[in-house]
Structures are given as C-alpha cells and as structure tokens.
Amino acid sequence: MAKNAVITGWGFYAPSRVMTNAELERIVDTSDEWITSRTGIRERRIASDGETTSSMSTRAARVALDRARLRPQDVQMIIVGTCSPDYVFPATACMVQNDLGATRAGAFDIEAACTSFVSALAVARGMVVSGAIQNAVVIGAETLSRFLNWKDRTTCVLFGDGAGAVVLEASNASVGIESVILHSDGSQAEKLMIPAGGARIPATQGTLDRGQHLITMQGGDVFKLAVKSMADAAEEALAEAGLGLDDIALMVPHQANIRIIEQVAKRLHFPMERVFVNIQRYGNTSAASIPIAISEAEATGRLRRGDKVLLVAFGGGFTWGASVLEWFGAHDGVRPPGPLERARGAIEDVVERVRPV
C-alpha cells in the first residue's frame, strides 16, 4: 500500500480565441472598467465550434502525461471534474479515455461545479493510497461559454473555457497530497445553477424560451458564502495536515473573482504576494481554474519541489473544499518510488541480510 499520492505531471489547454472586455462592451451593457474593477478579469478564452470539454481535457491530459513520462496505455484511471460535460451520459471521461488511447483505464466524471477538481483529486488520492490503483489522470475542464446568457451582464462577463490536468501516482515518499477537505450545502442550490435540462425540469420549448438552460446566479449571496467557506476550508485542511499558514509557499485558489480571492487572503491574514492569480487572463473557468493555475505557477517558477501548496475552491451546490500538498514535480524525470520499486528494494534488503560473508 502506498504511503502517499504525488503529482508527477501537469498541463493545461486554453482555446486560442480571446474575448476581451472591449468585445463584451459591444454585445452587452457593460464596460471594461466595470468588469475589471469588480472581477479582475480583462479577457477570457472561448472554445471554437469544434472544441468540447472532452477535446480540451484530452489536450491537457497529453501534456500532463508527457511530463510524467507515463504512456496512455499505462493509465489506470481517468477522472474528469466538470459541470459542462459533452453529454448527460456517457461520461466525458470516457470520451477522454478513448481519445487518449488509455486502453486499460477506468473513467468517470465528478460534478461539484467549481469544486469539481478538488473533489476529483480527493477521490483519486483515496484510490491511490488504498492501493486500488497506482496512477490516475485528474482533469478539471469546462466549456461554460455554451451555457451563458449573453444578455446578462452579471454572468456572461465572468466565465471562460479551458482544461487543466494532473497525473497522480503512488509513492513511498513522504511528500504528496497531505489533506483534502470537502463540504456542501444543498439548501443554497438555487443561488447558482442551471435550472433546466435535468430530470427535475426536462428540456421543453418552454424551458428554452425562458432561458432556463443557462447559468443563473445571485452574486451577492455567492460572494459572502464563498469568502467564509473557502477560508474555513483552508484552515481545516491545514489543521488536518498539521501545518500553519506560515508553512504555505503558495495558495492557489479557484479563480472566481479577484475580490473573493483578496477577501479570502485577508480573512486568513495571508499575503497576496503568496497567492497565485491568473483570473485576468482566463476569467472563471470553474473546475479548470485550479489545474490551469497550478500549471502556470510551475511554468513561471512559483512552484518548486518541496513547496507546501494550499488549494481552495467554492462552487454551485453549494460545494467547497481545500487541499494541502507538497509539490513533487517531475523536472528531472525522477519518478516517485511505487509498489514495484518498494518490493524490489525489500527483496534486495533481504538478500543483503542473508548474503554470506
């Protein structure tokens, strides 16, 4: 049984089409100043007609697998966190499994809105540490532009499309994912949701005409609940890991809104210079925001081996959660010792002890 689960690969994909605030000014009653001052967003990526949640997931996963030096046919599990899947069913993860050529992998989706990636990470970690699997590709991906009301300036300015992925592997090392905390409150569901399209309110001409297949949000309530919940979850995850905020080299929050991020940091008394922010370039990519941010943080030198990292998210449902991990990385191609390596080492130790002198 592995002692821990470590991230050995990471990658992301963002669509090439950039939608700026200036472009939004031409289609909805808003302004660059209004959007930037209230959200921190200057531009976001929008998927092209041929791009889907699964296609973006596959591209991000390929980058992560290359970094981990793991072949698709050796992948044992694929988990996609998303609230904008290709289909109601089958799972988007099954589309990714096929596109990758991961012929030995199980696959399923997790839907916890913007908390989906942290939730997927928690499930994958449990499976790896239990010994059920030796590796997993964990993906957060969204194509939320297809669920936006482009006449609603309170929501259409916020969201963008993209995908991020990490490879999680079994390790005998002490580093890895040290804690994961997950919470929910379904009594608040109506404050951030897509009302129709499921079994409760099936699709009809009437639901289409009323725009019930598009995102609705009560922004003020979401803001207040997000700040408190994310800060509380961060403190819980730190306590479970036996760490304090002084131990954290970098906090990577869900990129929902710059004001939310700043208020979470303020509530925790955590300096913003140790918070990774890229919302200005991508907007709110929901489940994709944390894995995209992880990839950019590593690429820009903000993540180094041995760093303690705090991930924290909040999403519709309501759902929220946090995770503390020690960054392993894979810059030099060194792989974490897995079960085969540990077994081989144990055999060699026995042989060495009984070797005649």
Describe, in plain words, how this protein is organized in 3D.
The protein has 357 residues and is of the alpha/beta class. The chain has a single domain, classed as Peroxisomal Thiolase, Chain A, domain 1, CATH 3.40.47. 34% of the residues lie in helices and 21% in strands. It has 11 helices and 13 strands. The protein has helices spanning 21-25, 32-39, 53-68, 92-100, 116-130, 205-209, 219-241, 258-268, 279-282, 289-299, 339-354, and strands at residues 4-13, 18-20, 43-45, 77-81, 106-110, 135-142, 162-171, 177-184, 192-193, 216-217, 250-253, 308-315, 319-326. The strands form 4 sheets. Strands 1-7-6-4-5 form a 5-stranded mixed sheet, sandwiched between helices. The protein has a 4-stranded mixed sheet with strand order 8-13-12-11, with helices on both faces. Strand 12 (308-315) and strand 13 form a beta hairpin. Helix 3 (53-68) packs across helix 4 and helix 7 crosses helix 8 (258-268). It is globular, with a radius of gyration of 21 Å. The two termini are 33 Å apart. The model is unreliable at 333-357 (pLDDT under 50).
Radius of gyration: 21 Å
Question: Which geometry do the CA atoms define?
Answer: globular
Q: Give the domain tally.
A: 1
Largest sheet: 5 strands, mixed
CATH topology: Peroxisomal Thiolase, Chain A, domain 1
* Strand order across the largest sheet: 1-7-6-4-5
Mean pLDDT: 93
The SS-based structural class is alpha/beta
Annotated CATH architecture: 3-Layer(aba) Sandwich
CATH class: Alpha Beta
